[in-house]
Amino acid sequence: MSVKLETLDCFEPFCDLDEQGKLIAADRISVELEKRGVKLFDVGDEDNVEHFLYEGEIELVAEDGRKKTIVAGDTAAHFPLALLRPRKFSAVVSSKTAQLIKVDIKMLHELRKTVPVSGDKFSAFAPFAEEDYAPKNHLDALKKFLIDASKAIVENRVSITNFDNVSSMIFDVIQNPAVTIDEVISAVQLDAAITAKLMRDANSAFFGSLGKVDTVRAAVVRLGLDLSVQLVTIMVMKEVFHSDRQNLNQAMSRLWQSSLKLATFAAVIGKRANPSFNQGQCLLAGLMYEIGTLVSIDYLDQYPSLLNRVSDQVLSANNVKKKMGMDLLQHWQFPEAIIDVIDEAGDFKRAASEASLSDVVTVALVLVRMTAYRSSPIEDLDLLPAYRRLGLCDEPAGFIEKIREQAHRYLQLFAGAFGD
Questions:
Q1: Cα distance between residue 26 and residue 5, in whole Å
Q2: How far apart are alpha carbons 207 and 141 in whole angstroms?
Q3: Which of 63, 213, 276, 332 fits a 20 to 30 Å CA distance from 325?
Q4: How far apart are CA 378 and CA 365, in angstroms?
Q5: What is the pLDDT of residues 61-100, one digit of tens each?
Q6: How far apart are CA 197 and CA 417, in angstroms?
Q7: Does residue 69 contact residue 124 with C-beta atoms inside 8 Å?
Q8: What's this model's pTM, rounded to 2 decimal places?
Q9: Could you give the angle at the alpha carbon of 134 between the alpha carbons of 132 and 137, nearest 5°?
Q10: At what angle do helices 136-154 and 318-331 cross, to 10 degrees?
């Protein structure tokens, strides 16, 4: 039985993995339905499998006879059952049936190495060298993978949608920091689908009971220049996260949802920063942050035999995704500031003399994590260099909650930008 990526979000060791980490985990774990009375493990066992309870109840029995019942959905069920080795408890299914997710400890440990964790100030797992955990044949396969994938990007052999002529023209116009309303209107009118979606958004409930607009100009005026640019950016970029291959399209869709959420937070944070950033650029930076994952997913889907030669932990390493993403955006001739985001964002210790888009996305990553997973990769936002460089330390109480509320509101509007 396969597992949906959304299911992994129920468990703490998986919820803060990035999309590629979750895809690798979902491909390697098993989901099993066990009947009442089945013993999962016994006291003293030193097995190499972690068990996560998704549905049902499990009774844990200690060596001295003490008992504890774990119910799916409870806080205790967010973590592996009886984590310590040797096992301090035996585990028996106590409900009629129990649905369990089982995962190899070593694989989970390696995937977790790429996740920043809270601790002393900015305690985090530093990027780790492949030599520390991968056998030499995996290193050779990784090098070949990076070379071949980079070559495929240059030769347009990855099936990630490139911009057609019209989309490219529109994109060039809206990414100009000095773009005017008249230029946006002219660009939007080049594409009938974008025109229709922009007018639909202008007539949405987001703007209350205002009268209906029936021209592109009226729609752009109502939306405002900044919001119009953001919506058109989303409409153009959404096509990049699409494939005609069903399995690949599902993965791309999942990655799009998380990228859109990150981009929305980045746009709101960029506007609140002091000095502020162009919201269209912030949105684009957030959308492109995980683009390297998309390249890896696409390339591995075309050449699945690579999965047998390159270890999971190598493929999930940050340096792989960064190189793939930077290579793609360089090939697409994206602005250096956006390419730098892929390389720099997420580095909670990064030193710099002035604020940048990388800082905006770094803070967005932290706030998304805090919102979605009830935890933060750092202990105090005021200690985060990126947060300080953006001039956010003096914001009043309730600032973070306002950021969340505004991001959620815009996310609802942005979701309509690519709805059918």
A1: 7
A2: 53
A3: 276
A4: 11
A5: 888 888 888 888 876 788 888 877 888 889 999 999 999 9
A6: 6
A7: no
A8: 0.65
A9: 135
A10: 20
